[in-house]
Amino acid sequence: MNRAEAERQGRRGETLACWWLWLTGWRVLARRVRIGAGEVDIVARKGRTVAFIEVKWRASRAALDEAIDARRLRRVARAAEGLAGKYARQGEDVRIDVVLIAPGCLPRRIANVWQPGA
């Protein structure tokens, strides 16, 4: 798959993730938020929790098992640290989640995948 097609698939995956999050009670606050430290695919809120969400789309369910690694999570964590003040209020829970998407499967959300200092 070339870079343009991968970008298209990634955007499609993010759109599907937004719909799925909405259907499960989350409110999407922002998409593709970039700062110098990195990028967050989706920022969403549910109650007093704000999640910075990395979305990974893969062509097969099996490929999802290797879609996320510590390097990618560190990049999202750095961006989330810089953005937390903009989206979360004092005393709210802030976390990093991952949404994994592949054709023919329901999205899979992994909550709180990164701990500060990890």
Protein architecture, described:
The protein has 118 residues and is an alpha+beta fold. It is 36% helix and 33% strand. It has one domain (3-110): Trna Endonuclease, Chain: A, domain 1. It has helices at 3-23, 61-64, 70-87, and strands spanning 27-35, 38-46, 49-57, 93-101, 108-110. A five-stranded mixed β-sheet has the order 1-2-3-4-5, with helices on both faces. β1 (27-35) and β2 (38-46) form a beta hairpin.
Can you give me a brief rundown of this structure?
The chain has one domain (3-110): Trna Endonuclease, Chain: A, domain 1. The protein is α+β, with helices and mostly antiparallel strands and 118 residues long. The chain contains three helices and five strands; from the N terminus they run H-E-E-E-H-H-E-E.
Note the main sheet: 5 strands, mixed
As a whole number of angstroms, the C-alpha radius of gyration is: 14 Å
What's the number of helices?
A: 3
Give the distance, in angstroms, between the N- and C-terminal Cα atoms: 33 Å
Strand order of the largest sheet: 1-2-3-4-5
The number of distinct β-strands equals: 5
Gross morphology:
globular
H/E element order: HEEEHHEE
Q: In percent, how much strand structure appears in the residues?
A: 25-35%
CATH topology: Trna Endonuclease, Chain: A, domain 1
Under the CATH scheme, which class?
Alpha Beta
What is the number of domains?
1
Enumerate the spans where pLDDT stays under 50 for 5 or more consecutive residues. Answer: none
Which architecture would the CATH scheme give at its second level? Answer: 3-Layer(aba) Sandwich
Helix residue percentage: 25-40%
Structural class: alpha+beta
